[in-house]
Amino acid sequence: MSHRSPEQLRASIEDSRKELGRALERLRGEVNEATDWREQLREHQREAILGAAAAGFVLGGGIGGFFGLFRRRS
Predict the structure, then answer these.
(1) How far apart are CA 30 and CA 35, in angstroms?
(2) Which residues of 37-66 are buried (b: 16+ CB within 10 A; e: fewer)?
(3) Contact, 50 vs 58, CB < 8 A?
């Protein structure tokens, strides 16, 4: 069992509280950075453009193919 004085306990609690506050601020900053979609888009612009082009190609081909089925039957 630890024999610390009340002042030592208070100081230890205060140190722990300060460290917890710093850790919370770091976590808050990391969460803001990870969820900043504009920054993520800037960092991964090439991949986003390629993904949008692929999605457009698939959607365009799918829509074109769908209406092409009706055109052939008529």
Answers:
(1) 9
(2) eeeeeeeeeeeeeeeeeeeeeeeeeeeeee
(3) no
Could you give the CA distance from residue 5 to residue 12 in angstroms, rounded to a whole number? 11
Please check whether residue 33 is in contact with residue 39, taking contact to mean a CB–CB distance below 8 angstroms. yes
pTM here is 0.51
Please name the residue ranges forming H helices in the chain.
6-34, 37-43, 45-73
Q: Which residues, in sequence order, are CB contacts of 41 under 8 Å at separation 6+?
A: 48
Q: Give tens-digit pLDDT for 42-63.
A: 999 999 999 999 898 888 887 7
User: Distance (Å, rounded) from C-alpha 32 to C-alpha 46?
Assistant: 23
Q: Are 48 and 41 in contact (CB under 8 A)?
A: yes
